[in-house]
Amino acid sequence: MTQQVTQGIKVSVATGFEGTFYKDHKLQYAFSYTITIENQGKDAVQLNSRYWKIKDALNNTVIVEGEGVVGLKPVIQPGEQHSYNSGCLLLSPFGAMHGYYAMVNFSSTRKFKVAIPSFKLSAPFAIN
């Protein structure tokens, strides 16, 4: 598990390999990830948007930006956490992702970014 704390918000990531399949005549590698966002601060925060940079071993890069996570803009109270599951497709059995969440502090209305630590995606059969 990969973890990082930014301004009192802890982001933890666990990954999984889901299998391979063909899409558009190309072999795709499917990966899942579970993210837990824990508010270790003293103010309630809301996650408003996300930014991802996804890169595979063939040097293909995809940028993903959007509102919330899996259709939600969770409010996370102090001492609480929000977890969600998602996934991505790669054209190689190895890759990595990182990014950030854009959040707002409810007490100060200050907007800030929370780093999503870089984490690796790897198919078990391709590991030496």
From TrEMBL:
All residue ranges annotated as the ApaG domain in the record: 3-128
Pfam families recorded: DUF525
Xref: PANTHER family: F-BOX ONLY PROTEIN 3, POLYMERASE DELTA-INTERACTING PROTEIN 2
Cross-referenced NCBIfam families: PRK05461.1 (NF003967)
Alphabetized Gene3D superfamilies for the sequence: ApaG domain
Signal peptide: none
Gene Ontology terms describing biological process: error-free translesion synthesis
Name the UniProt record assigns to this protein: Cobalt transporter
InterPro entries to which the protein is assigned, alphabetical: ApaG_domain, ApaG_sf
Organism encoding this protein: Constantimarinum furrinae
